[in-house]
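queue> pop job 88
queue> type: inverse folding (structure -> sequence)
queue> payload:
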């Protein structure tokens, strides 16, 4: 949805309800290094149930950025919520 409709707020509420650390990035400006920095934090978490990563404008992630998430999402260290303003149809 458009800016100001509460996408980030909803993701933050879900993270709090699930006892996850909340991180947010915008795929239009995030680098692979930015993604790896967040993922690296999942290695040393104490007192939470992992990370919830909200990625806005996910359609702008390149293949390497997408692949860097795969292992962490598959093993449950990272939960993703993504949004886009692009309509695929």
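queue> result:
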């Amino acid at each position: 949805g458009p800016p100001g409709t509460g996408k980030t707020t909803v993701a933050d509420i879900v993270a709090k309800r699930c006892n996850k650390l909340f991180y947010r990035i915008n795929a239009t400006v995030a680098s692979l290094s930015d993604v790896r920095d967040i993922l690296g934090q999942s290695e040393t978490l104490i007192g939470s149930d992992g990370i919830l990563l909200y990625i806005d404008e996910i359609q702008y992630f390149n293949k390497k950025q997408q692949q860097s998430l795969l292992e962490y999402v598959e093993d449950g260290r990272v939960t993703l919520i993504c949004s886009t303003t692009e309509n695929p149809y």
